[in-house]
Design goal:
Blueprint: E1 5-7, E2 10-12, H1 27-35, E3 41-42, E4 46-47, H2 48-51, H3 56-63, H4 86-99, E5 104-109, H5 117-125, E6 130-134, H6 146-163, E7 170-171
Parallel strand pairs: 3-5, 4-5, 5-6, 6-7
Antiparallel strand pairs: 1-2
This protein binds flavin mononucleotide (FMN).
């Protein structure tokens, strides 16, 4: 059966890709995934908050409501749980790219246009084959309506897309 799959300009042998997760934090584990036949890997998301530490207030706003939901908020991505800072992420990406033959996709989680455009360029320079934009956003401002949030997401995509040459898939 031919499972060849076009994705982001690549022809993958099949569509089984290691999605963004802590699995990608460790180079040896990524090599094992490649040996097992994975078609591409996505690195765990770096958070905009990590690029712009001053924006950590956003995460604080979420955390401050952590006990007021019936649903467990531990499912939210936690920027402080990430093992790499921005420089380490670039180094890890370069190492992974040098060691693997499959496409390596970086991932950024962000919610403003300004926070990551420059960094996205550095990811491209470090060898990322594409940049997955994880626009996961928890709306904590009661004064902001859905249209504003959606418009901002569109602006982020426009801003990042205009400054880069590699493919930018979205994860929402
Ligand atoms: C433990 C764990 C960590 C994850 N971390 C990220 C992440 O850092 N960035 C991201 O965009 N998605 C992250 N995801 C989402 C996955 O990449 C994937 O989109 C999601 O699990 C849906 O795919 P599935 O239906 O095959 O599980 C994570 C998922 C899990 C289970």
């Amino acid at each position: 059966m031919n499972l060849a799959t076009p994705y982001l300009g690549f022809t993958l042998p099949h569509p089984f890709v290691a999605g963004a997760s802590p699995l990608a934090d460790d180079l040896d584990r990524l090599k094992r995934l490649e040996d097992a036949g994975i078609a591409a890997v996505v690195l765990r998301s770096l958070f905009e908050e990590q690029i712009d530490q001053e924006a950590l207030a956003h995460h604080g706003a979420i955390a401050s409501h952590a006990d007021s939901f019936a649903e467990a908020t531990s499912y939210f991505p936690d920027p402080e749980g990430s093992v790499f800072g921005p420089d380490e992420y670039l180094e890890h990406l370069a190492r992974v790219k040098a060691s693997l033959g499959v496409p390596v996709i970086a991932s950024l989680n962000g919610y403003t246009r300004a926070g990551w455009t420059d960094y996205a360029r550095q990811l491209e320079g470090a060898g990322a084959d594409a940049l997955e934009l994880n626009l996961y956003y928890v709306a904590t401002d009661g004064g902001e309506d859905a249209a504003e949030i959606e418009d901002r997401m569109v602006e982020i995509v426009r801003g990042v897309d205009a400054s880069l040459f590699f493919p930018i898939p979205l994860q929402l």
